[in-house]
Specification:
Distance between the termini: 39 Å
Number of helices: 4
Shape: globular
Order of helices and strands: HEEHHHEE
Oligomer: single chain
Strand content: 15-25%
Largest sheet: 2 strands, antiparallel
Structural class: alpha+beta
């Protein structure tokens, strides 16, 4: 699978500065790929259009996430834990994370 094919499927054709695999080689799993784009605006567009990949048969199992610092990862981990607590206490509502807070709606 080529990174350019993945990005063009999402409707974007940004310039890729660098692309490399992350993690240890394991025979039973795929490795994550870190892609560095030329501009922050291109990164924002790709992340915004990532939901288009789920509708694609070829890339439906591909997950795109922003590169986060250690602090941001810890904050996100805490938010996910809070969201899971809300899901278990109130499963009738739809819970999601937006702008650094856990939100709920019916």
């Amino acid at each position: 699978m080529k990174v350019e094919d993945l990005l063009s499927c999402s409707g974007e054709n940004p310039i890729v500065n660098d692309c490399y695999c992350v993690g240890k080689v394991m025979s039973d799993s795929e490795r994550a790929v870190n892609v560095v784009l030329r501009s922050g605006a291109a990164v924002a567009r790709v992340l915004r259009n990532a939901k288009v990949l789920r509708a694609s048969t070829r890339f439906r199992k591909v997950y795109i996430a922003p590169d986060r610092s250690q602090e941001e990862r810890e904050q996100r981990k805490n938010l996910v834990a809070q969201m899971k607590e809300k899901i278990s206490s109130d499963p009738q509502q739809y819970h999601f994370i937006r702008n650094g807070t856990v939100c709920s709606r019916e």
